[in-house]
Amino acid sequence: MTVRAGDCVVSHPRWSDEETVIFITEHTKMSTVGLQLNRRSEHTFESLGIPGLMTDTVFEGGDANPGALIMLHTTEWYSSNTMPINEKWSISSDHHMLEKIADGNMPIDFRCCMGISYWQPNELDSIVKDPKSPWLVVKQPGPELVMSNPEDQWANAIKMLSSNIWDEFFV
After folding, report:
1. How far apart are the first and last CA of the chain?
2. pLDDT tens, 87-139?
3. How far apart are CA 7 and CA 119, in angstroms?
4. Which of 56, 100, 111, 171 to pair with 42, CA 20 to 30 A apart?
5. What is the pTM of this model?
6. How many CB atoms lie within 10 A of CB 22?
7. Mean per-residue pLDDT over the chain, rounded
């Protein structure tokens, strides 16, 4: 199986000790980059200078580049350096996006992360092809998974994968 931008990799319930969901934002010959969606960070929007939002949660996107704030969001919204991922999702990372949020100009759905998850060229594709891979791939998920409650997100992803397997072989 090949990973694409817009997919999620989910820690395997048998081969991993953590319940991790990572949204792949970029997958090229040069590298693969993603954002972990279900690990809350110590940062809040208030600590970033944006008080009063309905949500104050900022997530740990990964261990690489921990000072970078990246927003995964729906495609109807944009900022000065927004990069489309697919027809459902884009990412932005600039000071202008923070000003827009502070002014109440927000996307329909979004999640902000500090840091990124990173793989070397071809590394993630090689890992997911291994029969004992610690990662399972959810192809092009929608907001029902990407924006689900972080405490339930991993279980929701596993249920989605189980349902897809059932449908593929038995329906």
Report:
1. 21
2. 999 999 988 888 888 788 989 999 999 999 999 999 999 999 998 889 999 99
3. 15
4. 100
5. 0.91
6. 25
7. 89
